[in-house]
Amino acid sequence: MADVKPPSQATMGIASSALRAQQLRMRVIAENIANANSTARAPGGDPYRRQVPIFREQRVADGGAGVAMIRAEPDRSDFRLEYEPGHPAADAKGYVKTPNVDPLVEALDMREAQRAYEANLNVIETARSMESRTLDILKK
Which one of 28, 30, 61, 119 is most buried, counting C-beta atoms within 10 A? Predict the structure, then answer.
């Protein structure tokens, strides 16, 4: 029985992996927002392409199933075109490619990531509290 870990440790391991994954997700979203108005450096070139976080199941130290962001992949949706013939990045027809980043979608994704982060913090706090209460009961 020495190999068996208390449930709170398993819970904390899983919640901690989710905290790390959501933190990385928020960084990707922040990068997308920061580049939402960028354009290509050369005429007709491609601007910044939105990145999408990719997650997978990850075993945590206690054998529980956590989560990890393994990479960010480019979103293959089309760039938006804006007619600006005087822009340095305009193609021969006067169109400038702008990033495939929708700031509203990014803001909603950021809020979802923040809520998931907060929920996992609450899981850790609740597990600590339960463990503390259990120790208090055992002391009596």
Answer: 28
